[in-house]
Write a structure and sequence with these properties.
It is a single chain. This protein is mainly β and 198 residues long. The protein has one domain. It contains 2 helices and 8 strands. Strands 1, 2, 3, 4, 5, 6, 7 and 8 form an 8-stranded antiparallel β-sheet that branches. The radius of gyration is 17 Å and the shape is globular. The termini are far apart. 36% of the residues are buried.
């Protein structure tokens, strides 16, 4: 498996599993070139970013979470401090991490458009009965891959408040892995998402 394809798979897995939770794929971070055909490795690259503007599908059901999170499409717009780091060795094995912490506005929408890759391309009709929410967000995503297997995990913590002053905290964990014999373009061998609100 090539590094670029595995990085793309990582972003896809993260975006799919983070339904309704910010994903690294949509963060406005610079495009990492390490591991690309132009820079196949060995290489290391670190990039910093400050803004996120993300579109996501409804979240999986979660204990104690507002019902609208599992029904509505969502946008995350925020600013803070983000960093991505990628290492690729001579054998094209790779490791990467992405972290972001900052302030965010979360807006829920009744409708959204999803392309053939499962990416949300547009949203419409803000939900008049939910949000918008503002607050703090901290997310981490990382993974590793080689020519036989790959693993990706992420965590996300949000502390949000709506216009009426009602608040809640959200914690999300996601994991996916592909083992030898698993189609790298197909579903993961092992995967789970855990969402909880308090």
């Amino acid at each position: 498996m090539g590094v670029r394809r595995l990085c793309a798979a990582a972003v896809t897995v993260f975006a799919m599993s983070m339904m309704g939770i910010p994903s690294a794929s949509a963060a406005t971070a610079p495009d990492l070139t390490c591991g690309s055909p132009a820079d196949p490795g060995p290489c290391q690259q670190t990039e910093h970013f400050s803004d996120i503007n993300e579109l996501d599908t409804p979240a999986p059901p979660g204990g104690g979470c507002p019902a609208a999170l599992s029904n509505d499409f969502v946008t995350f717009v925020g600013t803070g401090h983000g960093i991505e780091h990628l290492n690729v060795n001579k054998a094209q094995d790779g490791w990467f991490t992405m972290t972001f912490t900052g302030t965010v506005t979360v807006t829920l929408y009744l409708n959204g458009t999803v392309n053939g890759n499962g990416d949300v391309t547009s949203v419409s009709n803000p939900d008049p009965n939910a949000g918008p929410y503002t607050g703090k967000m901290t997310e981490w995503f990382g993974g590793s891959f080689n020519n036989q297997s790959s693993v990706f995990h992420g965590t996300n913590n949000l502390s949000l408040v709506d216009a009426s002053g009602a608040s809640f905290s959200l914690h999300f964990v996601t994991h996916a892995s592909w083992t030898p014999g698993t189609d790298p373009d197909g579903p993961p061998h092992t995967a789970f998402d855990k969402l909880r609100c308090t």
